[in-house]
TrEMBL record:
The keyword Transmembrane applies. The chain crosses the membrane at residues 48-70, 82-101. Pfam families: FA_hydroxylase. Its main location: membrane. Coiled coil: none annotated. This is Sterol desaturase family protein. It is found in: Membrane. Signal peptide: none annotated. Residues 89-220 form the Fatty acid hydroxylase domain. Its EC number is 1.-.-.-. One of its GO terms (molecular function) is oxidoreductase activity. Keywords: Membrane, Oxidoreductase, Transmembrane, Transmembrane helix.
């Protein structure tokens, strides 16, 4: 774990622990809940393989597909004001993320990677770190590749990466946050908590990472009033520690379970 990652994690904890305390959705949920240590291991160690993988995937993609976009387009794109670039990036990246995320739910082999994230049974900001590196590299890679191909500036992409990360942690946080009618436009904790619900009506819903209206457009929105799910998680037999969770998707199906349905997400 590098020093920068440790500082980021410490600052993140100093921001989210008080927020979760003040606006708790489940006040009885403890900070040191079950699986706390495992999720802490993710927060500390998972960043390294993800960063390595993302750099590899994006380098490969830009080297092999860079010719698709004329240089003049890249110049025009990167000369736009940064706020406009970031706004466009959020839209482009989240449309790609939406479909990549849907694919991870629909394709059984991909689901085995994504199931690790859906094995979270007590949601909070720390649990949001529990993502299989392959899952994160492919979904994030897919949404970042078009940004590099189109020529968005490093500053705009960096700012977007920060916003995306902060938003993702908030979506998993143990908070009740009423954003009124905006909840049909922007992904809220309630929106993403339903994505993690262990309830049939909520399976395969709310795929967007930031823009909830993408789910409205494609008919996959599930936001019943102010209600929140009773329980989270899946039935798939996900092991309980980091190393075994990393290995889980590669272990032959018969050795871990019978036949998990992809609709169990
Ligand atoms: Zn999912
Ligand atoms: Zn999630």
């Amino acid at each position: 774990m590098d020093v920068l990652n440790f500082k980021v994690l410490l600052i993140t904890a100093l921001i989210f622990v008080p927020i979760e305390h003040l606006f708790a959705l489940r006040p009885n949920q403890k900070i040191f809940r079950r699986a706390f240590l495992n999720d802490l291991v993710y927060a500390v160690f998972n960043n390294a393989p993800i960063t390595l993988g993302l750099v590899a995937v994006i380098t490969l993609a830009t080297a092999s597909m860079g010719w698709l976009v004329p240089k003049s387009v890249g110049t025009a794109v990167s000369l736009q004001p940064i706020w406009l670039q970031v706004t466009e990036i959020v839209l482009i990246a989240d449309i790609v993320f939406y479909f990549a995320h849907r694919a991870f739910h629909a394709v059984p082999f991909l689901w085995r990677f994504h199931a690790v994230h859906h094995s979270i049974e007590e949601l909070d900001w720390l649990a949001g770190h529990r993502i299989h590196p392959v899952d994160q590299i492919l979904t994030k890679g897919a949404s970042f590749i078009p940004l590099y191909l189109l020529g968005y500036s490093e500053e705009a992409i960096g700012l977007f990466a920060f916003i995306f990360h902060a938003h993702a942690l908030l979506l998993h946080a143990n908070v009740r946050l009423n954003i009124g009618p905006l909840r049909w436009l922007v992904a809220s904790p309630q929106f993403h908590h339903w994505h993690h619900a262990n309830e049939r009506a909520a399976y395969d819903k709310n795929f967007a990472g930031q823009l909830a209206f993408i789910d409205v457009i494609f008919g996959t929105m599930h936001l019943p009033g102010n209600a929140v799910p009773e329980r989270y998680g899946i039935e798939d037999p996900i092991p309980s520690n980091y190393i075994e969770q990393l290995a889980y998707p590669f272990v032959p199906k018969g050795k871990t379970d019978e036949a998990p349905s992809t609709s169990d997400a």
